[in-house]
Amino acid sequence: MKTVGMIGYGAVGGYVAARIAAESGLRLSTLIVRPGREKSFRPTLGSSVDVLTTLDDVIDAPDVMIDCAGHDGLRQHGASARALGIDLITVSVGALADQELLKVLTHTATQSNSKLHVASGAIGALDALSAASVGGLDRVVYRGRKPPSGWVGSAAEDVLDLSALIQATVHFNGTARKAALAYPENANVAASVALAGLGFDQTQVKLIADPCVTQNIHEIDADGAFGSFRFQIKGNALPDNPKSSALTAMSVVRKVLNLQASVVQ
Predict the structure, then answer these.
(1) Span 47-103, pLDDT tens digits
(2) Residue 218 among the catalytic residues
(3) Domain assignment present for 60
(4) What is the CATH number of the domain that holds 162?
(5) pTM of the predicted protein model
(6) 48 in any annotated domain
(7) Lower CB density within 10 Å: C or N end of the chain?
(8) Pick the catalytic residue: 71, 77, 171, 218?
(9) Which domain holds residue 227?
(10) Is 241 contained in some domain?
């Protein structure tokens, strides 16, 4: 049986934990939470799950760790997981725009022979984009469109009055690196597109607040030696959190299942 650890237990983490519990051959063994929150999770998860605040206290290291805690969670615990030789799955892809963090995670992985798996998150077509990068890409543009409420608490509030918008408005236009660093909770998709294609500094990003939409809409335009493609997905949120993509949670589960599958798709 493959044991699974998780960092964070919000809407995405709760969905992933429920699906792990329903799968034969998988068991949630470890949960890392913020200090002071350990006791609140133990009644829900039971005594078979070690609820800790740091991987330094883990006794039986899980086979794989899942980061569902956002950029801060990856910064605080990512290197520890990899130093222990634990493969790590993350959806906090935007954090990798921080070159120093990426350097640390890469170094610890090399030393321990562990791997960092990037879940596709709320977007698709990354397999096609990654394949196209082999032959050479000329242009990759990502556009993220959300209702104004989806940008509350982000840097969009510095340039827009989100409550007063009557038409779609671009509030960011720049590179994927700048988007990922400026919008840590909203631009993980831009970072995933960048990693699959032209990289953080060559991938162009537009972020849009649109009062006429109710879903999060992600689009990729790409041109290269392969030809060209345009991809769009309209994503629903998880019922427990309107800011969390349902497909993000599903992509994490698929990544875990692939680790034990004999045929990976």
Answers:
(1) 889 999 999 889 889 999 999 998 999 999 999 998 899 999 999 999 999 999 999
(2) yes
(3) yes
(4) 3.30.360.10
(5) 0.91
(6) yes
(7) C
(8) 218
(9) 126-236
(10) no
